[in-house]
Amino acid sequence: MRRRPEGWVPPGPVPPGAEAPWRQPGPGETLDCLAGHWRIFQLRRGHRYSTDDLLTAWYAAREAERSGVTPGRCLDLGCGIGSVGLLLLWKFPRLRFVGVEAQEISAALARRSIAYNGAADRAEIRAADFRDPAALRPGEAFDVVTGSPPYLTAGEGRRSPLPQRGPCRFEDRGGAQAYLEVAGERLVERGFTVWVHASRYREENLEDSRSAGLGRIRLRPVLFREGRQSLITLFCARRGPPEEPVEDEPLVVRTRSGAWSQQYRQVRREMGFPV
Fold this sequence. Notes:
Blueprint: E1 29-33, E2 39-43, H1 51-67, E3 73-77, H2 83-91, E4 96-101, H3 104-116, E5 123-127, E6 142-147, H4 166-169, H5 176-186, E7 187-198, H6 202-211, E8 216-223, E9 232-238, E10 246-247, E11 251-252, H7 262-270
Parallel strand pairs: 3-4, 3-6, 4-5, 6-7, 8-10, 8-11
Antiparallel strand pairs: 1-2, 7-9, 8-9
Helix pairs in contact: 1-2, 5-6
């Protein structure tokens, strides 16, 4: 169970969840610290939130700040247990959020986390495959669309026997291309989409983004250890004809000594995590 370090004072409001006994974790579940006072329900042996989720939410928040726009509506495609959406709901107190998740077990956990943190009046989780036209309502549009497409195709790597984990890692229901096609259809004119994907598929992600009409691209490689190869990259795209991508300096998570970098400490600070 992820706990807060002694002496750290979480920022932000205290959620109402602790007052509702039925919102406590059941057998095989944990209730873990997230941003500020907020917490998240997870399966002890299942898909759990990661640094990738934190960085995706942070990159979306940074892009909103950079463009001087406070997002009003956010869509998270394949939202899983809701970690990216919860982080953005915490960051933007007036944000309204829709998450679409095909696995009912993950969607149910996301709903409980939203209720626990007092955000049920501005968030909705839909148990559906986002590629299904019925998953989103006619005319629904969003300022921000986020996603964490699976990094592996059917022939890559070993598949987890745990049912909740496999679809999170393998392209059972489409990869980055499917995510970007929906994002391109659902963004408002000045909106943007943020997603994270394996760095080895950088060029494929750029091409998929352009094919979806999202030609104005910004990206930031992530180094989990200073001096090592980038394994994941954060992408941000907007509507427009293809342009040369803008590449930010790599974001280093840990220094050569293994300590958190100052960059990553700042990420955690901005998203309500202890440093």
